[in-house]
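Predict both folds.
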Amino acid sequence: MTVEMRLSPRLFAAVQDFAYRTAGIELPEGKQEMVAARLWKRARTLGYASAEEYFEAVQRDRSGELEVDILDALTTNYTSFYREPAHFDFLQKEILPRLKNRRRFSIWSAASSSGEEPYSIAVTLVETLGSGAYEQARVRATDISTRVLRLAQAGIYPEERFRQMGADWRSRYLLRGKGEQAGNYRFRPEIRQMIQFERVNLMEPLGPAGPFPLIFLRNIMIYFDRPTQEKVVAAMTDKLEPGGYLFIGHSESLNGVEHSLEHVQVAIYRKSGRLEDRTL
């Protein structure tokens, strides 16, 4: 990185403060080069002369569009289908048998990124509960990034993302792209219709949705410091039904985080109470 591209201590501190206040994202001192590279990339893409000029535009913007843009730049939206398979195994064997008699229920994917997680949940629901899941179950997919939500809502992914899936799985849940979409697959409409996409900033009031029997909150806690983790976990706990489950990432832990949940197994926590097998 050239000297010109490095952020001044003042600018880096301002970006740190902005990210924390806006989205609870912690940018420790070791992240200066990463932050500088990503801000310079966005500055060049959007036609600003420097990272500082770009950040000044973010602060002046009242539409919220540049705020979303810089938060996209500062976070890493990596995910995959059926990431951390033990969670989907637990969902199939332990949770869905208790929900199968409900008329309606919804599962929340609270940091859904580019959609791999909510689509994996939706397919798991259908494979476990049968075709009735198309009407019975919904997945609420939320993220702070409107860019990744647009990608997720389209439900289109490169063919190589599905190489580990069998041909029968692909024929049941995907449509093969043709023409300009050759080399891509798109999830079938009945799967896409199970998922409701919405922008949610976990630092803001979460609104009336819920309660949920299960919330996926995976691979987002790593961006938060301890007080923010406690705030988010408390908000998620409020959104869980009695006996409901919270999944976090396998690389994450609630050790040292004050919370009221029971530890079930690695990266799985449960709210006290009984998960009812009927519609609440």
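Second protein follows, with its predicted structure tokens after the sequence.
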Amino acid sequence: VNRVTPHTALTLRRPMVRAEAGGARQMLEPIVQLGWRNVSGGDVPVEESAAAEFDQGNLLAMSRFPAPDAREDGVSLVYGVNWARHQADGSQFAATVGQVIRDGENLDFSDTSGLQGTTSDLLLAGQIKLDGGIGLTARGLLDGSFNFSKAEFRGNWQDERSRISGTYLWLDADPAESRASALSEVWLDGSYELSRGWTAAASLRYDISSDRATRAGLGLTYRNECVTVDLSVNRRYTSSTSIEPTTDFGFTIALSGFSVDKAPEKYRRSCS
């Protein structure tokens, strides 16, 4: 099968920077892009591009499919704005808003991809980094009814001995992405340095929609300049009648100092 997809785009940006009296700097950048593509040739099965994501990374992309088995076609207009603020104490704030308008609908995009129809969902993304090791990131797709089809919120904090991170994820129901019902989950992960060389870790994945934990784990690691020893136990819960809940015990020894390319020896055991 042969296909040809010529494309071209004209992008206009107007970055504007302002310095404040306290040492902070702000940046505001409006963006407008006019793009054209023309897909010609035979059809191929859409396998790798079955699930497409719309985010600030591909806002100006010529094709927002993750693989070349599907391509966007026709004329599109993209508009958006980037904003950032850097303070003198090291704190950083950033935000992105954008939307795509096309002359035709592409049926290969799923309902919750944010790219269905001729007008995409409104992309909202933001990031905060504060002095003291605190970081917050949020991203969401807001449809014409002011409902979120996908939303994600991440947070992390760390200091010299501790690290804590968490994620909240909301995905609306979409049979094209193998979700018969809406998904709402929370992931928590953390570690703490007990003493020199010894670190304890824990993780939890909780399904709010089903009101039950799906995964949980504990770990203990010893590390020095010669060897790294890792002990872990992970529990996988399930409500399926075809899959049994399992508990995995892990024991890993990694020798340091010989070669960074040497793979560590691993001993693993599972039980139901």
